[in-house]
Amino acid sequence: MEYAVRGAIVTRAGELEAQLKKDPASLPFDKIVMCNIGNPQSVGQKPITFYRQVLALTDYPQLMDAPEAGKLFPSDVISTAKHILGNMKGGTGAYSESKGVAALRQMVADGIEARDGGHKCDIEDLWLTDGASVACHHIMKTLIRDGNDAVMVPIPQYPLYSASLALYGGTLVPYYLDEDKEWGLDVADLKVQLDKARAAGKEVRALCVINPGNPTGNALNVDNQKEIVQFCKDEGVLLIADEVYQENVYAEGRSFTSFKKVVRDMGLDIPLVSMQSTSKGFYGECGRRGGYMEVCGLDPDVKAELYKLASVGLCPNLSGQVLMGLVMSPPKPGDPSYELYAAERDAILSSLKRRALKLVSGLNALEGVTCNEAQGAMYAFPKVSLPEKFVAEATASGKMAPDALYCMKLLEATGIVVVPGSGFGQVEGTWHFRTTFLPSEEDIGGVVEKLAKFHAEFMDTYR
């Protein structure tokens, strides 16, 4: 099992960071810039005030009894905290139901219904989880019996999927996103890959779609989503919709539509698992480990197995549950907290859009580098034409893939941490790396400048 986002390059970054603390003048840079993972608050993003205020009161209810409470906390913060605590047994320090607190699942369901134009969400179809990654593990545990069971996964992919399939002994069936068509998903290619896997004796049980995309940053349009839904219906495979970046869409003319809404608008009821997280969006509360999965169209016996899996872990953490409820049911216009909430949300999203444009523009200015627009999510995934001499040297050494060695050299020269494309999968003979645009606008400017200098020197060395 491998997970490149926290692999050898990140380990080396930790060593260099420790070296900088001991001797700041010992390296050609003064700090490590973590562009390897979608971890917004680690690079300076401020938490959303409303969420933290409610979390504070649910963790320490005595604050509501203080004389200053009305001055410190808006009335809707206090009423929300009271509602949550009034529907929990023992507060945030006690176990909850295995699927999560019913009142918090209802808050999530209300948010899903509002997002999806009124399509009903039953709280019994909702599991609150310790992040979307745990939801993925629950599904893979339930799906995979042995190596003959397979899941279709996009390439490039987020390595959670290859790792979990390796862990549970299943088979990954790749389907390739088309880089020349803005990382588009071709349903005809899905059919080719499916038939090939079945001919090899594999039982393809699910199709995973990441929308908006990680690491590619693409955002699917509704017509493409309808094709995917029809494919799953025709072929009898479960659709796993990884939608943790649903708030992160930046490209003009693009917007997020959930697969649940597409399925319902088509009048269908195919088996569908959709996942959301508190870690991404504009909130970036990665450390809270909050998430949910909504399961639709599953046999009751399958849902019983999922409940059993959740029960083994007793329950998801309570702070993550509370936060997931707040993310899906935020302040509404007219609420005392709404103006600040909306201002914080809009400032973060507009800044992310500016950073995405600056980074992609900088990447496309480099010799031999091409990068599609970051339509959504938090990443750019540029293609790098590595010199043949360098590729031959890296291959001969056998220690690292050429793109991994490029990323290691970038780290040791600049302090910038990115992830090689080989950790996500890529078309054979091509080289990529993934970088976030989460660091501050000032830091992103520095990343672009340092990367340009490094890349020019690198190319000159290996001509």
From TrEMBL:
Annotated Aminotransferase class I/classII large domain ranges read 76-450
Sorted UniProt keywords: Aminotransferase, Pyridoxal phosphate, Transferase
Gene Ontology MF terms in the entry: alanine-glyoxylate transaminase activity; glycine:2-oxoglutarate aminotransferase activity; L-alanine:2-oxoglutarate aminotransferase activity; pyridoxal phosphate binding
Instruction: Reply yes or no: does the keyword Lipid metabolism apply.
Output: no
Fetch the Pfam families from UniProt.
Aminotran_1_2 (PF00155)
Pathway, per record: Amino-acid degradation; L-alanine degradation via transaminase pathway; pyruvate from L-alanine: step 1/1; Photosynthesis; C4 acid pathway
The protein's required cofactor(s) are namely:
pyridoxal 5'-phosphate
Does the record's keyword annotation contain Electron transport?
no
Q: Which example biological process does GO assign this protein?
A: L-alanine catabolic process
| SUPFAM superfamilies linked | PLP-dependent transferases
Query: Which reactions is this enzyme annotated as catalysing?
Result: glycine + 2-oxoglutarate = glyoxylate + L-glutamate; glyoxylate + L-alanine = glycine + pyruvate
Q: Which family does it belong to?
A: Belongs to the class-I pyridoxal-phosphate-dependent aminotransferase family. Alanine aminotransferase subfamily.
Q: How does it assemble?
A: Homodimer.
PANTHER family linked to this entry:
ALANINE AMINOTRANSFERASE (PTHR11751), ALANINE TRANSAMINASE (PTHR11751:SF29)
In its UniProt entry, what is this protein called?
Alanine aminotransferase
Tell me the organism: Micromonas commoda (strain RCC299 / NOUM17 / CCMP2709)
